[in-house]
Design goal:
CATH topology: protein yfey like fold
Structural class: alpha+beta
Number of domains: 1
CATH class: Mainly Beta
Distance between the termini: 74 Å
Radius of gyration: 22 Å
Shape: globular
Number of helices: 3
Helix content: 10-25%
Strand order of the largest sheet: 2-3-4-5-9-8-7
Length: 182
């Protein structure tokens, strides 16, 4: 009799768990994209992932722009920006010569995560979160940079992270990920 009761209970529980309606799944909109400073994400790694792989994963960008970045300590580079507005992502590639998009060879140098991306760093700092937590999580920013209300960025070059703050709300509204440097 005990065996029959056990078997009945097991079958009842097993069959109720099998039904799709009883299993709660996180919807895509509730999940965070985990961002690692100096690395990127699981799918997109700065300094390694080819822009062609981004196209395979996300499709063609909503917007594409080209520009020139003039550095102080090195020659200027040509910058390509690929904007995925709905996803809140911007990918930046650089070339030494103006070659257009250079899809075959271009490697992601910078990933910008905006609020639409629902990004959260591997250390728990989230877009839309309170800016006061930045120094607590990452320490003081680079010595040559001081917070300025007109230019609200926190720089952590050695970690490969820059955090942008919304000057009105004082919340985090952008993560900029790149390879760490001195």
């Amino acid at each position: 009799m005990k065996f029959i009761f056990f078997l009945f209970t097991f079958i009842t529980v097993f069959s109720s768990c099998k039904e799709e309606n009883n299993i709660r799944k996180l919807e895509n909109k509730d999940q965070h994209t985990i961002v690692q400073p100096g690395i990127g994400t699981e799918k997109f790694i700065v300094g390694k992932t080819n822009i062609k792989n981004v196209f395979v994963e996300l499709g063609k960008p909503n917007k594409f722009t080209q520009g020139i970045t003039d550095y102080t300590n090195r020659e200027a580079t040509f910058e390509n920006r690929y904007f995925y507005i709905k996803e809140g992502l911007t990918f930046i590639t650089e070339t030494d010569e103006s070659k257009g998009e250079d899809i075959e060879n271009a490697v992601i140098e910078v990933i910008i995560f905006e609020e639409n991306s629902k990004a959260k760093t591997s250390d728990g700092l989230a877009l839309g979160g309170i800016a006061g937590k930045i120094n607590y999580v990452y320490g003081k920013q680079d010595k040559d940079r001081t917070p300025n209300p007109d230019y609200p960025y926190f720089y952590y070059r050695k970690k490969g992270l820059t955090v942008k703050i919304d000057p009105d709300t004082k919340n985090i509204n952008e993560f900029i990920i790149y390879q760490p440097y001195e």
